[in-house]
Structures are given as C-alpha cells and as structure tokens.
Amino acid sequence: MTPLMKKASHRSCVRLAVLLGIALACAACSSQTFRRSQSESDAKLQSQLTRLIKHEMAIQKLPALSIALVNDQQTIWAKGFGYQDPDHKTPATARTVYRVGSVSKLFTDVAIMRLVERGQLDLDAPVTKYLPNFRPRNPFGKPITLRELMCHRSGLVREAPVGNYFDSSSPSIDATVRSLNETELVYPPGEHTKYSNAGVTVAGYVLQTIERKPFAEYLKDAVLRPLGMNDSAFQPEPRTASRLAKAYMWTYDGRVFEAPSFQLGTQPAGSLYTTVLDLARFESALFAGGRGVGGHILRPQTLENMWVPQFTLADQKSGFGLGFYISQLDGHRMAGHGGAIYGFATELDMLPDDKLGAVVITTKDCANGVAGHIAEEALRLMLARQAHRPLPQVPLSEPVPPEEAQRLAGVYGQGEAGVRLSDEEGQLSMVRNEGGNRLELRQTGKDFIADDKLSYGPPIQILPDAMRVDGQTLKRQPDAKPAPAEKSWQGLIGEYGWDYDTLYILERGGHLTALIEWFFYNPLQQLSGNVFKFPSHGLYDGERLTFKRDAQGRATAAQVGWVVFKRRPLGPEEGKVFRIHPVKPVDELRREALAAEPPKGGGPFLKPDLVDVTRLDPSIKLDIRYATSNNFLGTPVYQKAKAFMQRPAAEALARASRALRRRGYGLLIHDAYRPWYVTKIFWDATPADKKIFVADPSHGSRHNRGCAVDLTLYDRKTGREVPMVSGYDEMTERAFPFYPGGTSLERWDRRLLRQAMESQGFTVYEYEWWHFDYRDWQKYPVMNVPFGQLQTRRASSPHAR
C-alpha cells in the first residue's frame, strides 16, 4: 500500500494549512546521551508534560506515544507511553521505532544541500539539467527548479500516477518519477505553494541519479550514519522490525483498524523509519551548526539559508524554507515539519535561536493535532526553564457536558464562513462550510477549544445566539431543512478507492464534496458534467476530480489528479432490500432456536408490561419487515406484523412521535419487541464479518427486553418513507449513525430522528442509525414469548390520543 501526505496541524490554525506526509522504511538501534543530574525544574517540566500526555492519550485513545526533548547537545528527556504493541502489552519506549511520514523530507533536503555546498547541484537550475527525461506537461513555459521542488512551489500534482499514497504495489522511485510525465502542472512554477509528495520524490531521484546509488543506501551513508542515527533507515531492516510500533486507522463514523504497512513509491518524501532518540540526535546536530557525531553534514550558513521562508515578502516570518516549515512560537523563530502516514503522526519542532527542540510521535492516523500541541507546550516549558522563570501551568481541556452540546448544536454564520456544530454521542464537534476537517470541541475555563486528534486550537467563544472564532462573530442561523441534492449528482455519490483509504463523494451544503484521506472535506467546483475542481487550498489544491460513468449514468471511478479510485460496491440501491446468504437454512435455524433456552440470571427485574405502540399513537405506522419476506433473510420470522414495547419506552416513543409531527414527520416502525429465539436465528444465520449488526443471543438483545425499536421517518403529507443514507437492515458502514456520506437532506433527516429519540431517553446503536435503546432496558428480563401468545393491551396513558 502507498500512503499520501496528510495535512498537518502547524502552529494551531496555521498548522492546518501545512500538508504532511508519508513514511516507510526501517529503523535500527541507537544509544543516546542523557542529562545525568535532574534539577527541580526538570522534574516539574517532566511532571507537567506527563500529565498533559496522559490526558491527551486518554481522550484521543492513542495506543502509543514517544517524546524526546533537546537542549542544545543534550537530550534532557526521552520517554515512551502506552503500548508499542497493544495486543501483547509491549510498552512503548524512547527506542520504539515509528514511521515518521513527511519528516523524511527534511533528510532528503539536507542531502540535496550537501551537494549544493559541493557545487554538484544548483538550486535554481532547471531540474531537467539533472533529469533530462523528466517532462511533465508544462503549459506555463517556466522550468521547474530544485528550490521549487523543495519549497512546494513546483506546481506539480500532489501524488504521482504510480507510487502514490494509495498505491500498494510499492514501485521503485524510478517508476514513480517516470509516471509524472503523464501529468500536467497545476500551477506555474514558483507562483503558488502547493504541497507535493511527488515534487520531493523528484528531488530525491536527482540525488539517486547524481550519486549513482540507490536513494535509501545513499541517505544512510551520507546523512543518517554521520548524524549517529543508527536506528534509522529509508527501508525496512530486520534487526529493528521487532521494535516497530503497531499503528491504527480511525474514521469519523467510529471504526478503528490496524494500519497498512506497504512501502511507498515516494520514498524520499516519506519513507523514514526512526525513533525519537534518533530525531533528537538530528536536532542536536542542527543546533551544533550542522555537526553530527561523524563530522559536519552541513555548514552553519547553509542551515540558516534553509530556515529562511522562500518565495515570500522580505518581512514574512512563516512559510516553507528549504524543506523546513518556518513559523513563530510566542515570538521565537521555529523550524520543523510534521509527518502523517497510515496510522502514525509525528511532530519535529525546533527553536534554532534558543537551541531547544521537541519530537513527538504517536500511533493514531493523522493525530498531528495532539503531537503538535504536546511539542509546543514542551517548548514553552523549556523556554521558561531556560530563562529561570516559573514554569507555566499547561491547561487541560474538559469535555462539554452532553446537555450543553445538545443546546449549542446548530448552524452559525453563512456561506463559506459558516460553521455547523453537532452533538455526536454526547460530544460537540465543528465543521466549517469551506471544508477542512471535523474537530471535537472541549472547554478550557469559559472558552471552548478544538482539542482533537487532527488539530488543537483556536479558542472559541460561545455568545448568546452566536459564536466567535478566528476573530469573526458568527450568528446562529435557523437549521433549515436542506434542499434535495442535484439530480445529476446522484450517480456520483458513493465510496471509491480502498478499504485502507476510502474516498467519499457526498453532497454537503449544496456542493458536491470530496471527503478524502478519511478526514478532509473539499467542496468541489463543477467545471462540466463529469469534471470538478478542488479548492485552491488543502491537500489537493487546484487539482481536478473526473468521474467515469456507465451507460446508466452511475460513476464507476473517480480520478483525483492522475490517481484512479474505483467505485466500491456497498449496499443495495435505493428501494432494494439488503440480503445475506444465511450460514444455514433458516428453517433449520428456526427449529434449533425454538428448542434452545434463553439466558437466565440477573435481576431483580420489573414485571414486563408490553403494549402495542400504535394504540398509544395511531399516527405511528408499521412496516414490520420480519413478518414478511422483505428482510435480510428473505423469509418471514414473525407470525404477526405488530410492534410491542414496555410501557415506559412506548410512552417515550409516543412523545417523540408528537414532537416530530410538528415538523411534518411521522414514525415508521420496522421492529420493536423481538422474541429471543428470533435473535438466535439472526445470529446463527449471519456470517462472522457482519455480526456487529446482530445481537449475541448468549447475552440477549434489548429487543428481547421490549426496550429497543427499529424505526425511520415518513412524510406526513405524502405518507412516503423518508430516504436515509442507507436502507433498513443494510449491513454496511452506511448504516452507522455518523456515517459521513450521502446528501445533506439524508443526514439532516437522520439527525432529526436521532435528536427526537434522544430527547426522550433513547440512545442510538453505534452501528445502526435506525436502532434505538430505551434508557431503562436493563430493568427488564430477556423474553421469549412468541407474538401469537402476547396479549394486546389497550393503552391507558393519559397522553394517548
């Protein structure tokens, strides 16, 4: 598999503009010099950071994190937290090996500058001087230079057609660079900062060509060994394989899975394996004016040149230097880079004038917000320590209370400046209309702040009927029902790509939108029927997205730049029922289930009091799929099409129905009380890979207790069922209650149903948007009474009408 560069969180909001990257290779073992005596301020510094690290690891669910702090020529603290291998409880340490993504670029750029010092390379000569066969289509006439490649000013696409972040075939650098001849420049060279993994790969290929030595081998001999980075390499090495951390992917809809580990075809841009100790050695060498344990790798003046923002105004203090990203931290010059590759996130930050550095690496995909926040707080503490000032207290964020999250959820501002706040599973999150990533909001005192895996900051003030963010006051707007999506987009909406990295095409706020690399929303500009353009910022700045359709108008592939994402088969099309192939014939499973005994124990329980929910509210409609063959098994399992619930749950359902009636909606029930033997049929019939969608009969289901209901909405004017992101009983990710795809209207209706049910004491099941459990379900026993034996009870609720 082949990773793509991810957007790093660079200096709070500024971080979000910096796109991070890839990594893969090898690592070896290394020793490091530590400060032997520990002052009181050292102990306080470590205590504060340990408190922050444990806090962030807990709230962001990070498996492992390693940190190293550098003061000039000493590593003053290096430590691991969590587990290098959670399955085997192997602790993470300072010598745990990680993939560090785009931090790899710094080493490629250092190697380039070594040859510049020796007169072998000219930063401002056309790169074709060194690679005469490098000929991407260039309608702008101006040639690309090494300086532009290193500063992301080449105008090249982000990813090459071959060897890109998604390409699991692990091709050679040669093949990756050759494939760029199929592409066309997006911007004129030198005119626009556009992050490009492909560009740095070309720079690395220049090294390989000039030195006539494989890139990984040359970097090891010319840069890594002279720096004393003996646990580092640009390709996997067996001797450090046992120390490579397990890394994990995550998604907005709640999935977590082990990260892929394939080699990248963009090796110079992100394939370094290393440790925090080795990266600390790198920082110390830079603070020593470019002198490593094996002698000088660069002259001091060359380093200073690398730390000057390129292609900027003379007084501009932030931007890409030669490889390094340059910014300010509390008035101090900061140089560094972030890195994000499948399952790993790295932040390497330095204050060159103060000779202070921090390295933080963690094993959750794109968790650069956490790594960057910890690194910055570490630098602030070290600055105070260096100046003999009292160490500042590092603030820890607190969760927003669920009731406050519900109150604040809504739409703020209009147009591209607008923001939606959402309450999801009791957490408050924010997504901007202009795109970017979704951020979890937490509280620090009276203010709110984005404290999320993806980003930290900026502070947000919540005002009466408004919010203030980035200096703008955004007034609360009515959460109006969205218009239906453009009909011509229906055949485009869906999923494309791979299990390990899926591209979602959805409609959001009236724009066809690409959610790419799991986390980054990009509203698209339509250029023609099948051709769209990414915004002029973000991961795929200015690139085109082109769809290929079949004869029915349904897209079969989406091409981003020159990377092709094939359409992923999901559930059935609208109006069709999801079906499985039962593991055994249903009649045989029915006989076995009827002969089995449900689980006993627990209690004491309340006496069951099942009532027919339609007698509490006749406007509630029934579509009991399991009394028909129109269900995932294709055969009836109920004798009657009825919906029973325990009285308190049924009364709460009726209250939700009345609230929705005022919005023009009614409730349509697919299932409620379910005899235990039916739960056993479902479990035994369902293949192992889909069992998250059915209850384990050994524990019983909340349906068996009469406290769960499967339902959707219908339009009271037309009487028709409201379309949702997925159909009922669809056993795919589209069924998840926070699945990000579909249309604005589908998600709005799904959210309206959830909010109505939650307001009456129900909670949504994590894998099914239609399944809701009543809060008192534990107070009732598992029941196995067939429908034919249930006595229909007439409702006596004072609210029945």
Keywords:
801 residues; alpha+beta; 8-stranded antiparallel beta barrel; disordered N terminus
The main pleated sheet reads as:
8 strands, antiparallel
Uncertain regions spanning at least 5 consecutive residues = 1-37, 793-801
Task: Characterize the overall form.
Answer: globular
Secondary structural class: alpha+beta
Distance between the termini: 60 Å
| Spatial sequence of strands, sheet with the most strands | 5-4-3-16-15-14-13-12
pLDDT averaged over residues: 92
Give the number of DSSP strands.
40
SS summary, helix count: 16
The percent range for helix content is 10-25%
Show the helix and strand layout.
Blueprint (H helix, E strand, L loop, with lengths): L6 E2 L9 E2 L20 H21 L3 E8 L2 E12 L4 E2 L6 E2 L4 H14 L28 H5 L22 H7 L17 H15 L3 H10 L23 E3 L5 E3 L8 H4 L2 E2 L1 H12 L3 E2 L2 E2 L3 H7 L12 E2 L4 E5 L2 E10 L2 E8 L4 E7 L5 H19 L15 H7 L1 E3 L6 E6 L2 E6 L6 E6 L2 E5 L4 E8 L2 E4 L2 E6 L16 E5 L2 E8 L2 E6 L3 E4 L1 E2 L4 E3 L10 E6 L5 E6 L2 E4 L19 H10 L14 E3 H4 L4 E2 L21 E3 H15 L3 E7 L4 H10 L22 E8 L28 H15 L3 E4 L2 E7 L27
Parallel strand pairs: 35-37
Antiparallel strand pairs: 1-2, 3-4, 3-16, 4-5, 6-9, 7-8, 10-11, 12-13, 13-14, 14-15, 15-16, 17-18, 17-24, 18-19, 19-20, 20-21, 21-22, 22-23, 23-24, 25-26, 26-27, 27-28, 29-30, 30-31, 31-32, 32-33, 34-36, 37-38, 38-40, 39-40
Helix pairs in contact: 1-10, 2-5, 2-6, 4-5, 12-15, 14-16
